[in-house]
Amino acid sequence: MKILIIKLRNIGDVLLISPLFYNLKKYYGDSCILDVLVNAGTEKILQTQYLNQIHTLKRNPNKLQRIYDELALLKAIKKEKYDMVIGLTNGERSAFLAFWSGAKIRVGFPPNSFWSKNLYTHKLTPKRQHNLEDNLEALRILNIPILSKKVLAPIPQKTTNLNNLPPHFIHLHFFSRLFFKCLDDSFCAKIIDTITQTYHIPCVLTAAKDSRESKKLQNILKLCHSKPLYFDGTLTLPEVSLLNSKALAFVGVDTGIMHLSAANNIPTFAFFGPSVVASWGPWDNDLDSSTYNKQNGIQQMGKHFVYQEDFDCIPCGRTGCNDTKISDCLLSRLNQQKALSYLLDFLNNIIRHH
GO molecular-function annotation terms (predicted)? Predict the structure, then answer.
C-alpha cells in the first residue's frame, strides 16, 4: 500500500499529522510505503522514522521558477502511482493533487467549489474537536484502528550548537509567524525576570531566522534586568527540538514550537489569544482524549496548561481584534498579575518535583 499524506500548512499543523504515521504502518505492515507532501520549510519538524520520502511545495517568488517547481511536483506525484492519498488541508490544491495522483482511494476535506468538491472518494467533515482528532478522521472513515494518538517530535540529531546549555533551564519561545498571537515585549521581559528571580534557574530563549522575530527578541532582551541565554535564528528545527527536550518546562505562545514542546513531553505553558484552545491546545501524549472543554479561560490537558482570558469575544478566531493584527486580549487587556500567578503555580509543581 503506497500512501501520500498532504498537509500544506505551518509547522504546528504539520506536526499534528504525525499520529497517522504509526497507525498506518501498524495496519498495513511492511507493505506500507508512506510519503508526505508539505510546504517547503516545514519538513524539518517531521520525524522520519516511518516515512519513505518527503515532497515539498516550494513557493518561489520568481513566477517562472514557481511554475517549474510545481510542474516538477506534479510529475513526481504522478510517477509514484499512489494507492491512497489523504488530503488534510481543506483547499482546492490538496483535492486536485489527490485526484491528479490517480490514487483509487482519496480521503480529504472537500472544498466548496463546484469543480473540486467531488474529487475525494471519502469525504471528511470538520468537527468541533482538536485538530489532531480531525486528522485522525481520515483513519476512522477507512475503519483503520487508532492504536496511538502520540505526536512524534523529530529525532534529536547531535550538534555542537547546544554544548553550552545549562544543566537545568526553562525554554521560552515568545514568537509566532502570526504576530497577533504574540505578547507585549515588556510582559515577556517580566516573565523572564520573574522566573530568574524566583527560581534562580536560567531562561533560554529561541527565535526563528526572521527579521521581525529578531527585532522583537532584541527588544525583549533590552527590557530584561536578567541576562537570559538566547538563540536568535541560529538553530534548525531539530536543534530547537533537542534544546526543548532538555528543558524543565516550556513557556510560550500559540505557535508550532509549543506543539513541538508538547510532543517532547515537556510541561508546556501557553498563552492563547484569538485561537480556539479546544482545536489547538498543546496535546498531552500521555492522554487519549482532549480535556480542553471550555470556550475560554484557564484550561489544562495533563501536564500542559493554557492561559487565555475569559472575555465574551474569545475565541474570535480572527487575525486580531476586528482583523487588525493586534490582539488586545494578549496585550492591553491581558491580566498580567493573574497570568504570572498561574505561571508560577505551574512552575512550582514542576520545580518542586524536580
Answer: ADP-heptose-lipopolysaccharide heptosyltransferase activity
